[in-house]
From TrEMBL:
It is found in: Cell membrane. GO terms for molecular function: transmembrane transporter activity. It holds the Pfam family FUSC. It comes from Kushneria marisflavi. Keywords: Cell membrane, Membrane, Transmembrane, Transmembrane helix, Transport. It is a multi-pass membrane protein. The keyword Transmembrane applies. InterPro entries: PHBA_efflux_AaeB/fusaric-R. This is Uncharacterized protein. One of its GO terms (cellular component) is plasma membrane.
């Protein structure tokens, strides 16, 4: 096979870990004479292999812990709901179809709405577990539904425990172990950017390239910081500070860009060399200390007052020097906080360097209600139509196809192209039926005892595990392993029923085909279209910031903007789209500062706020019209020029107007490039990586 040369040592360790977990779960299930030992193996395979589809190797322990907890809670809730469905509608097939389909649609709606929160995984499990329990009870006898629910929960917990134990004992991978070093690399890189900006000017292409590299470090920090709460106890106390800095790091990116522009504007003024020398004197030693990987926190320097260094006859120089000082001060404050957090994560003696009290910042999910409603609708329609076929055909094994439909249609609802994934699952299901037939007819009748049973099962488990890390064969490997364990009779006493096996295999294939047809006929919007809608909604949110009667706090606004960037990453946005998100952050914060400064501008407050509100309305109408953006930038410069006549001179307010004109002039090209550079193929791959 093509994947053989790509199999690494990590993949073999993953296969060993999976096989041992399967053996442990199967042995305990058989010793305790549990109802369905295959369910314990099924839990092992899904907990172990499903994350591998997106990590390409051994998943970090934080993901495993998160999945284990979510699967346990979701299975319990789903089993409970399955009992309720049977208790209410066991004698009313049509009402059962409506109720079970509504529950499955509701869980799918929540899965899509909650984005990547832990509750999303719990709702996914509770959705299809309810159908598994209730449909199994219908197919085998509704009188034992409580025993089935208890068995499902017990054996799932057994499989979860076995899988988790092997991940802990055999070469565990800690995704957040490198978090302190990653954070230090981010701080060192940002400090180097600030130092270079103070020393020399750079072209826009060079600046964008260096900021692109810095954004890569930021994304690496994001990926590791999300696992910290599950992997290391000593990081849990720092979670509020980590979450706050995750939002601050985006402000750091925009702060560096604005600092570069502010210095460039100041360089055109007379006497700029003396001003920059005065600002460099306390700043460069601080930045050099941050670039060093030491265990000491450098003192945050006090920048000189530029007002005493500029003559009253040079108001433009004073305004631009004040803007440089403010941006430099903000960048250094963020760098100082990041270095303190990095030191606190490295050793307990540094924990006192940061503030540990206070709640974690509230996050916004930015739900896509339209996408969630559409997915819930297609799940409900598919479940009802297949259910009607099952009831009216009288097919005794039809409940198995309903079970597979319920699992697959919820499991891959978030995939960029779920129809393609389910096609791979169909291939794996067909192979599983063929291999299962071989095991049932040839292997199982020829063996006795647990050792031979374990060795025979190890072969398909190893093959499925080695296929899963490879994107092209991931769904085939996982589907084959899952379906095979569902079809095989793994009780203590082996009894083979050919008719039952054939019906079960055909039902599994039919359920997978119906899922694939559903995704093919009811196509949801592409990631590119969803990104367009999401970005348009963000611009409308920016317009609301310009006219809101009550000015939001800076912490709330930065948290919202940070969450927007996270949502763009989850949908697989490209590099240019990320740049637009950073530009959006800079523009929003600039408008927020303008509104805050306008409130202390005296008689000019209402005039400035009216202009800002009008600007917000025009932002939505500008679109890709660069002439409109240049006109808005010119209006901003005119506002700044008019303020030079005021006494005393509002230096901070004028500086923000000039920075706003730069952002307005620079933004349209980035927005246009983002939309042109976005290709569906890249989006799908990016979304798979993000998940």
């Amino acid at each position: 096979m093509r994947i053989v040369p790509d199999i690494t040592g990590d993949h073999w360790v993953l296969a060993l870990r999976t096989v041992l977990a399967v053996w442990l779960a199967l042995y305990v299930a058989l010793r305790l004479d549990l109802a369905q030992p295959a369910w314990a193996i099924l839990a092992v395979m899904i907990v172990t292999l499903q994350p591998v589809m997106f990590t390409g190797g051994t998943p970090p322990l934080g993901i495993i812990i998160h999945r284990c907890i979510g699967r346990l809670i979701g299975t319990f809730l789903g089993a409970l709901m399955g009992v309720v469905l049977i208790a209410l509608f066991a004698q009313q097939p049509m009402l059962y179809l409506l109720a079970a389909g509504a529950w499955l649609a509701f869980c799918t709606f929540c899965v899509m709405l909650l984005n990547d929160e832990p509750a999303s995984y719990i709702m996914m499990l509770s959705g299809y577990t309810a159908t598994l329990v209730s449909l199994t009870a219908i197919g085998t006898g509704v009188d034992n539904v409580f025993d089935l629910a208890l068995a499902r929960t017990t054996e799932t917990a057994l499989g979860i425990g076995a899988g988790f134990l092997m991940h802990v004992l055999i070469a565990p991978r800690f995704g957040s172990r490198a978090l302190p070093g990653t954070l230090q690399a981010l701080i060192s890189g940002a400090a180097d950017e600030a130092r270079v900006a103070l020393d020399r000017t750079r072209s826009r292409a060079v600046l964008n390239e260096r900021l692109r590299n810095l954004m890569g470090k930021h994304q690496q920090f994001e990926a590791q910081h999300s696992l910290a709460r599950f992997e290391f106890r000593r990081f849990r106390r720092l979670l509020p500070a980590l979450d706050h800095f995750a939002g601050d790091s985006l402000a750091l990116m925009t702060g560096l860009r604005e600092l570069e522009e502010a210095i460039d504007r100041l360089s055109r003024c007379e006497g700029c060399d003396d001003l920059m020398a005065a600002l460099r004197a306390p700043t460069l030693p601080f930045l050099d200390a941050l670039e060093q990987d030491g265990d000491q926190l450098p003192t945050l320097p006090e920048l000189p007052d530029v007002a005493i260094l500029v003559t009253p006859q040079a108001p433009v120089t004073l305004v631009r020097a004040t803007l440089v000082r403010e941006r430099l001060s903000e960048v250094m404050r963020l760098l100082h906080h990041g270095r303190a957090l990095s030191l606190a994560m490295r050793h307990h003696r540094h924990v006192g360097l940061i503030k540990l009290t206070g709640p974690r910042p509230r996050r916004a999910n930015h739900p896509e209600y339209g996408v969630a409603r559409y997915n819930a609708f297609r799940v409900f329609i598919a479940f009802e139509l297949l259910g009607l076929f099952w009831i009216h055909s009288g097919w005794t094994s039809g409940y198995l196809s309903m079970m597979l439909l319920g699992v697959f249609i919820v499991l891959f609802a978030k995939a960029p192209n779920p129809a393609a994934v389910v096609r791979q699952f169909l291939t794996g299901t067909i192979w599983a039926v063929i291999i299962g037939c071989l095991f049932s007819y040839v292997v199982f009748p020829s063996i006795t005892g647990f050792p031979l049973l374990a060795l025979s099962l190890a072969v398909p488990v190893v093959i499925g595990t080695l296929m899963t890390p490879h994107m092209r064969y991931a769904a085939v490997g996982l589907a084959g392993a899952v379906t095979l364990m569902t079809l095989l009779n793994l009780h203590r006493t082996y009894v083979f029923h050919p008719t039952q096996f054939i019906n079960g295999g055909l039902a599994s294939i039919l359920g997978t085909i119906v899922t694939m047809v559903t995704y093919s006929l009811f196509r949801q919007r592409t990631p590119a279209e969803r990104l367009e809608t999401l970005v348009a909604a963000y611009w409308r949110g920016l317009e609301r910031v310009t006219r809101a009667r009550r000015l939001p706090s800076r912490t709330w606004l930065e948290s919202r903007l940070y969450d927007r960037l996270s949502r763009l990453l989850a949908l697989g946005s490209g590099e240019q789209m990320l740049r637009e998100a950073v530009d959006l952050h800079a523009l929003a914060m600039c408008l927020w500062r303008l509104r805050r400064l306008a409130r202390v501008s005296g008689s000019h407050q209402h005039e400035i706020e009216r202009w800002i509100a009008g600007l917000g309305r025009q932002l939505l109408q500008a679109g890709r019209d660069e002439a409109a953006w240049r006109r808005l930038a010119a209006e901003s410069e005119a506002q700044a020029a008019a303020l030079y006549d005021l006494k005393p001179l509002p230096t901070a307010l004028i500086g923000e107007f000039e920075m706003l004109s730069h952002l307005l002039r620079d933004l349209p090209g980035a927005a246009a490039q983002a939309r042109e550079a976005l290709s569906p193929g890249e989006d799908e791959q990016g979304a798979m990586d993000a998940r």
